[in-house]
């Protein structure tokens, strides 16, 4: 059998989307591995399903390129909201999406034709306790904490945005051997459930450049929850301000993050690249 798919991305963080509001998909873990291959299939950072929800307008189910299920994807949730709006499941300018990290609210930004082209997402409060990451480190917060990875010392700040992030500051993230170092961080014994790692350069007050290694996917061109974690970590480390827009430059484009006492807001584009049919 064949199913229609939607290839979508949020500033280059690309997934293969399926409309499962009326018809489910089976063996999604295996499907994600097969379809994410950029040489022999559609290619992407994983597969995301638009599903019905009893508690929100819709539900997002995401699977990484290695088949593992993720709890949350900031770039993916903007595309889920756009897809739900484009297909007529959601009307108006606001959408709620159920995730494994709770219900998130999206505020759409539309073009002159009424199509969603961007969204601002209330990502919820950041969690800072190492128990919430989880990480095998004591204390209530992990900020500028020294760890040795691959024989080199890094200073890390840990943040959970519904999924775990390790933020470390470097002179130039594009001079790092990310294929090597990213794997070492991801599978470090400090992180029993693995970790997403952001390598960050401070460009100025409230302006940052990051490169990300995502657990289960490797390097991606953007990571919405990672950008949120970087903004939070940068406030904690004195590089950025609370209650102010923080620009985070990623390989695929920019995200605007605002960290408040109550929540973290993320704003960025949501783009449909193309549609097609694929054998399931």
| Largest beta-sheet characterization | 18 strands, mixed
| Oligomerization status of the protein chains | single chain
Q: Return Rg in Å.
A: 18 Å
Secondary-structure-based class equals alpha+beta
Please, what is the average pLDDT?
97
Q: Quickly count the helices.
A: 4
Terminal-residue CA separation: 6 Å
Low-confidence stretches at least 5 residues in length (pLDDT < 50)? none
Q: Please give the number of β-strands.
A: 18
Shape: globular
Q: What percent strand?
A: 35-45%
The run of helices and strands is EEHEEEHEEEEEEHEEEHEEEE
What is the helix fraction of residues, given as a range? Answer: 10-25%
Q: What would you say about this model in short?
A:
The protein contains four helices and 18 strands. It has 280 residues and is an alpha+beta fold. The mean pLDDT is 97.
Protein described:
This protein has 280 residues and is an alpha+beta fold. The protein is 16% helix and 43% strand. It has an 18-stranded mixed beta sheet that branches. A hairpin with a 2-residue loop joins strand 15 (246-250) and strand 16 (253-259). The radius of gyration is 18 Å and the shape is globular. The termini are close together. The model has no long low-confidence stretch (mean pLDDT 97).
């Amino acid at each position: 059998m064949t199913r229609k798919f939607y290839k979508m991305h949020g500033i280059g963080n690309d997934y293969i989307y399926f409309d499962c509001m009326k018809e489910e998909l089976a063996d999604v873990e295996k499907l994600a591995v097969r379809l994410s291959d950029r040489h022999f299939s559609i290619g992407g950072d994983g597969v995301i399903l638009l599903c019905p929800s009893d508690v929100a307008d819709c539900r997002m189910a995401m699977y990484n390129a290695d088949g593992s299920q993720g709890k949350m994807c900031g770039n993916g949730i903007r595309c889920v909201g756009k897809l739900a709006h484009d297909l007529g499941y959601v009307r108006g300018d606001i959408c709620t999406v159920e995730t494994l990290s709770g219900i998130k609210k999206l505020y759409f930004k539309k073009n002159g034709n009424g199509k969603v082209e961007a969204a601002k997402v209330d990502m919820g409060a950041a969690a800072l306790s190492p128990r919430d990451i989880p990480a095998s480190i004591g204390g209530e917060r992990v900020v500028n904490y020294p760890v040795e990875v691959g024989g080199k010392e890094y200073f890390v700040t840990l943040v959970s945005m519904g999924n775990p992030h390790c933020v470390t500051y470097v002179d130039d993230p594009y001079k790092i051997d990310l294929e090597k170092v990213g794997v070492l961080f991801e599978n470090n014994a400090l992180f029993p459930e693995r970790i997403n790692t952001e390598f960050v350069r401070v460009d100025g007050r409230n302006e940052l450049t990051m490169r990300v290694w995502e657990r289960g996917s490797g390097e991606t061109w953007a990571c919405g929850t990672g950008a949120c974690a970087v903004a939070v970590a940068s406030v904690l480390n004195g590089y950025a301000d609370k209650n102010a827009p923080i620009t985070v430059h990623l390989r695929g484009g920019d995200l605007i993050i605002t960290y408040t006492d109550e929540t973290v807001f993320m704003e960025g584009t949501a783009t449909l690249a193309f549609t097609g049919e694929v054998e399931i």
